[in-house]
Specification:
The protein has one domain. 14% of the residues lie in helices and 22% in strands. It is built from 1 helix and 5 strands, in the order E-E-E-E-E-H.
């Protein structure tokens, strides 16, 4: 299973925690695959294949991992 999670925004002054913005694929150490500087909200792990397309990160690395998770 490929893991995915939304970005961890808890360190912002006033984070919007009411809705997911984009869901990134985990690179194995709780950071986004598309950008190692983006920490993920670890308690909210999702199966990458089950993340709705409109919520998926569209950057090259994450998009390729989503395609692989979908079997494409």
């Amino acid at each position: 299973m490929t893991k995915a999670a939304p970005r961890d925004a808890s360190w912002y002054d006033r984070p919007d925690t009411h809705s997911f913005k984009v869901v990134h694929v985990d690179n194995g150490d709780e950071f986004a695959l598309c950008n190692t500087g983006v920490p993920l909200g670890v308690p909210t792990w999702l199966d990458a294949a089950e993340v709705p397309r409109r919520m998926r990160c569209r950057r090259r690395a994450c998009a390729a991992a989503y395609a692989k998770a979908d079997g494409r």
